C-alpha cells in the first residue's frame, strides 16, 4: 500500500492555490489510504524565512492552518494529522541528511534563490529548508507526496538524498514521487501573473476562509482578457484569470454559460465575476462554517493534533532509530 506524506506551511488561512493544488488531494488520498496518509503543518519551516515569520503569530497561524485543513475535509480520525515541531525526529533526521547533501545542490534550488535574493542576510536555515523537507517525507518512508508544481524540485532532491543515504549506509529509504493535481499545477494569483503566493501580498491571494465580501472586492477589480476593452468586444476565457478560476470552481452548465457568453460578448465581465462568486460561495461557505465550529471548540482541535503527533511518532521513532544505527552512532 502506498504511504503518503505532505506538509503545508502555517500561513493561517490557506489560499485557493494551496486548496486546489494540494489540500483537496490530501483529502482524496486520505479517503483511499486512511492512516497510511500522513499530513503535517510544517511550523519548523516557518522561521527560515524572516520576511514572512513573526513569533507573535506562529502558534495562532499553526492552529488556524490545522483548522482550515480539518474544515476542508481532512478527518484526523481517518488520517494522521499533526504539527511538525511536536515530533522531534524531523529535525534529528534532517541533521543526518545535512552530512550527505552537497551545499551546491541546495544553492541551486529555485525557491531558495528567490527568497535569499530578497534578504540582506541569508539564514543557514533557509538553505537547509529542503533537507528538513526530505526528512519530513523519509521519516515516514513515504513514497507518494501530493504537492503543487512549485515543490517538484524539492521532491527530486528528496529522492537524491534517499539514494545517497541508501548508497552510503545501506538500503533504508524509498525514493518518493510527487503527485500533482493535473488541473491545478500552478493556480495564478489575482495580479494575473505566475503563481498565487502569500509572499506577493494579500491583495493577490484568495483565502479559503476569507469573508466572501472581501473576496468579491478583490474579484471586482481583478484583470480579465485584455482584448475585451468594451462590453461588446468578444473575449477568450482561456486567456482570462476569471476563466481560470471558473474552471476550478464552477459546474459544467455555469462553465458553458460563461465560456459561450464571453466568446460571443453575450455576458459582461462583471456578470461573469458574479457567477464566479456564486460558485466560490458554494465551495467555500460550508468550509467556512465548519471552520467557525472548530474554532469554537479549540480543545477538540488540540486533542486531535496531540493524538496525531502520537500516531506520527509511533512511525517516526523506529525509522529514526534505524537511520541512526546505520550511520554508526553508539547504542546504549
Ligand atoms: P506551501 O506551504 O508553500 O504550500 C502548500 C502546498 O500548496 C501548493 N501550492 C500551490 N499549488 C498550486 N498553485 C499554487 N499557486 C500553489 N501555491 C502553493 C504547494 O505546492 C504545496 O504542495 N515546502 C512546502 C511545505 C513542506 C512539504 C514538506 C511539502 C514542508 N515539508 C514535505 C511536502 C512534503 C511548502 O512550502 O508548501
TrEMBL record:
<dbReference type="InterPro" id="IPR024109">
    <property type="entry name" value="Trp-tRNA-ligase_bac-type"/>
</dbReference>
<dbReference type="Pfam" id="PF00579">
    <property type="entry name" value="tRNA-synt_1b"/>
</dbReference>
<dbReference type="InterPro" id="IPR001412">
    <property type="entry name" value="aa-tRNA-synth_I_CS"/>
</dbReference>
<feature type="short sequence motif" description="'HIGH' region">
    <location>
        <begin position="10"/>
        <end position="18"/>
    </location>
</feature>
<dbReference type="InterPro" id="IPR002306">
    <property type="entry name" value="Trp-tRNA-ligase"/>
</dbReference>
<protein>
    <recommendedName>
        <fullName>Tryptophan--tRNA ligase</fullName>
        <ecNumber>6.1.1.2</ecNumber>
    </recommendedName>
</protein>
<dbReference type="InterPro" id="IPR002305">
    <property type="entry name" value="aa-tRNA-synth_Ic"/>
</dbReference>
<feature type="binding site">
    <location>
        <position position="187"/>
    </location>
    <ligand>
        <name>ATP</name>
    </ligand>
</feature>
<feature type="short sequence motif" description="'KMSKS' region">
    <location>
        <begin position="195"/>
        <end position="199"/>
    </location>
</feature>
<feature type="binding site">
    <location>
        <begin position="17"/>
        <end position="18"/>
    </location>
    <ligand>
        <name>ATP</name>
    </ligand>
</feature>
<comment type="subunit">
    <text>Homodimer.</text>
</comment>
<comment type="similarity">
    <text>Belongs to the class-I aminoacyl-tRNA synthetase family.</text>
</comment>
<keyword id="KW-0030">Aminoacyl-tRNA synthetase</keyword>
<dbReference type="InterPro" id="IPR050203">
    <property type="entry name" value="Trp-tRNA_synthetase"/>
</dbReference>
<keyword id="KW-0067">ATP-binding</keyword>
<feature type="binding site">
    <location>
        <begin position="9"/>
        <end position="11"/>
    </location>
    <ligand>
        <name>ATP</name>
    </ligand>
</feature>
<dbReference type="GO" id="GO:0004830">
    <property type="term" value="F:tryptophan-tRNA ligase activity"/>
</dbReference>
<keyword id="KW-0648">Protein biosynthesis</keyword>
<feature type="binding site">
    <location>
        <begin position="148"/>
        <end position="150"/>
    </location>
    <ligand>
        <name>ATP</name>
    </ligand>
</feature>
<comment type="function">
    <text>Catalyzes the attachment of tryptophan to tRNA(Trp).</text>
</comment>
<dbReference type="InterPro" id="IPR014729">
    <property type="entry name" value="Rossmann-like_a/b/a_fold"/>
</dbReference>
<feature type="binding site">
    <location>
        <begin position="195"/>
        <end position="199"/>
    </location>
    <ligand>
        <name>ATP</name>
    </ligand>
</feature>
<feature type="binding site">
    <location>
        <position position="136"/>
    </location>
    <ligand>
        <name>L-tryptophan</name>
    </ligand>
</feature>
<keyword id="KW-0436">Ligase</keyword>
<keyword id="KW-0963">Cytoplasm</keyword>
<keyword id="KW-0547">Nucleotide-binding</keyword>
Amino acid at each position: 500500500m502506498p504511504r503518503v506524506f505532505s506538509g503545508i506551511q502555517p500561513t493561517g488561512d490557506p489560499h485557493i492555490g494551496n486548496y486546489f493544488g494540494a489540500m483537496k488531494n490530501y483529502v482524496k488520498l486520505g479517503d483511499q489510504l486512511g492512516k497510511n496518509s500522513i499530513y503535517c503543518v510544517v511550523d519548523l519551516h516557518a522561521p527560515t524565512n524572516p520576511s514572512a515569520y513573526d513569533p507573535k503569530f506562529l502558534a495562532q497561524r499553526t492552529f488556524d492552518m490545522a483548522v482550515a485543513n480539518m474544515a476542508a475535509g481532512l478527518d484526523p480520525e481517518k488520517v494522521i494529522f499533526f504539527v511538525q515541531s511536536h515530533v522531534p525526529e524531523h529535525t534529528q533526521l534532517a541533521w543526518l541528511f545535512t552530512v550527505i547533501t552537497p551545499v551546491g545542490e541546495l544553492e541551486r534550488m529555485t525557491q531558495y534563490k528567490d527568497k535569499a535574493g530578497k534578504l540582506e542576510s541569508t539564514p543557514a536555515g533557509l538553505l537547509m529548508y529542503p533537507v528538513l523537507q526530505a526528512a519530513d517525507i523519509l521519516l515516514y518512508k513515504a513514497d507518494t507526496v501530493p504537492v503543487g508544481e512549485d515543490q517538484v524540485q524539492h521532491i527530486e532532491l528528496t529522492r537524491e538524498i534517499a539514494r545517497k543515504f541508501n548508497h552510503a549506509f545501506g538500503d533504508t529509504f524509498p525514493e518518493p514521487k510527487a503527485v500533482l493535481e493535473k488541473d491545478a499545477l500552478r493556480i495564478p494569483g489575482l495580479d494575473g501573473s505566475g503563481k498565487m503566493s502569500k509572499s506577493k501580498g494579500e491583495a493577490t491571494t484568495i483565502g479559503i476562509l476569507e469573508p466572501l465580501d472581501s473576496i468579491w472586492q478583490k474579484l471586482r477589480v481583478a484583470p480579465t482578457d485584455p482584448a475585451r476593452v468594451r462590453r461588446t468586444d468578444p473575449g477568450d476565457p482561456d486567456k482570462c484569470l476569471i476563466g481560470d478560476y471558473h474552471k476550478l470552481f464552477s459546474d459544467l452548465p455555469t462553465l458553458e454559460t460563461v465560456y459561450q457568453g464571453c466568446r460571443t460578448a453575450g455576458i459582461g465581465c462583471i456578470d461573469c465575476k458574479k457567477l464566479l462568486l456564486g460558485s466560490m460561495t458554494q465551495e467555500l461557505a460550508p468550509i467556512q462554517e465548519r471552520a467557525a465550529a472548530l474554532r469554537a471548540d479549540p480543545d477538540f482541535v488540540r486533542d486531535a493534533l496531540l493524538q496525531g503527533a502520537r500516531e506520527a511518532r509511533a512511525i517516526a521513532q523506529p525509522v529514526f532509530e534505524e537511520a541512526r544505527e546505520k550511520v554508526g552512532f553508539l547504542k546504549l
